[in-house]
Amino acid sequence: MHELASSLIIIGILITVAAFAWNRTRKKPMDFRAFFMMGIVWFLMGLPLMSFMDYSVSAIGLLFVVTGLANKKKWKKNAASWKRTNKGEKFMLMMVMSIVAMLFIMGIIVYMLVESGAVLA
């Protein structure tokens, strides 16, 4: 089970590095509204993890929320929009969303198989 989790993490890191390398040509200002929303998600995802982990996920979420709120004046100016993205960026976003959705579905399937006892961890 640990091999699957570590391979999924490595795949995620490779996809992230590829996305940053591919999108490096155009400099964009920071989207602090996205930081705020990402912080809320991390904080909420960290709450159930506190029972068997430390507070690190929730702490990172709070850090993102604070960063987003500290720069709230820049939300409107730097907000990303689907209309302002070019075709290459739209393609990359769709690919990333598709891969994340597939990994999420595969994770649910693996979890269900392990919980039912069909696959021994």
Architecture overview:
The protein has 121 residues and is mainly alpha-helical. The chain folds into 2 domains: 1-27 and 82-121; 29-79, no CATH class. The protein has 5 helices and no strands. The protein has helices spanning 2-22, 32-49, 56-70, 75-78, 87-116. The mean pLDDT is 79.
Record the SSE blueprint.
Blueprint: H1 2-22, H2 32-49, H3 56-70, H4 75-78, H5 87-116
Between the first and last Cα atoms, what is the distance in angstroms?
5 Å
Low-confidence stretches: none
Please count the helical segments.
Answer: 5
User: Largest sheet, described in full?
Assistant: none
Short description:
This protein has 121 residues and is mainly α.
Question: Which features would summarize this protein structure in a list?
Answer:
121 residues, mainly alpha, 2 domains, 5 helices, 73% helix, globular
